[in-house]
Amino acid sequence: MTTLPLPLVPADGVLVPKGVLVRVPRAVAPPVPRRRSRLREIVSGAVERRQERSDAEFVAWFDARQAVDLKVRWRSTVEACNFGRASHNSITGVTRVGMPHVVHAEAPRFDRDGYLIITLPSGLLVSDLEEEREALASGLGVHSVSFVRSGADHVRVDLRRADPLERTVSFPLPAPAGHLAFGLNEAGVVVSRPLDALTHMIMQGSNGSGKSTGAYGLLGQLAGSPYVDVCGIDPTSLLLAPWGDHPRGWRVCGTEDAAARYGAVLADLVADMDARIRTLPPRCDKLPITPETPLRLIVLEEAGAIARLSGYSTSKPSAVQRLLSRLHGEARKASCRVWTLVQRAESGSISTFDRDQAVTRISYAANDVATLRMLHDVGPEHVTELTASPAGTAFMEAPGLPLCRIRSPFLDYATYCDVVSGSIPRPVAA
Ligand SMILES: Nc1ncnc2c1ncn2[C@@H]1O[C@H](COP(=O)(O)OP(=O)(O)O)[C@@H](O)[C@H]1O
Ligand SMILES: [Mg+2]
Question: What pTM did the predictor assign?
Answer without folding.
Answer: 0.78
